[in-house]
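testing teh design pipeline on a random one, pls ignore if ur not involved
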């Protein structure tokens, strides 16, 4: 009985880790990093860094109007969904 319980717990942990790892990968229908960078540049961003997939969106940092900003971008439309000064 104890072996079965340990096996079940191990399976849950492994599936959780696998789910976490795949959650931070761009989807097959997402805009490419290059396309997102072009959208951000058109929106006034420069020095874009750290652009990566995270929790269903692109996120990163860049400079806009002289301030370092953190942003989130919709992976399908390229629209900014969050932008705030990076502290």
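output:
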């Amino acid at each position: 009985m104890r072996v079965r319980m340990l096996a079940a717990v191990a399976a849950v942990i492994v599936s959780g880790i696998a789910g976490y790892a795949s959650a931070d990968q761009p989807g097959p229908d997402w805009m490419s990093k290059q396309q997102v960078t072009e959208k951000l540049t058109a929106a006034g961003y420069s020095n874009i860094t750290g652009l990566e997939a995270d929790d269903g969106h692109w996120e990163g940092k860049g400079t806009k109007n002289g301030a370092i900003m953190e942003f989130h971008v919709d992976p399908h439309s390229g629209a900014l969904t969050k932008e705030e000064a990076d502290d």
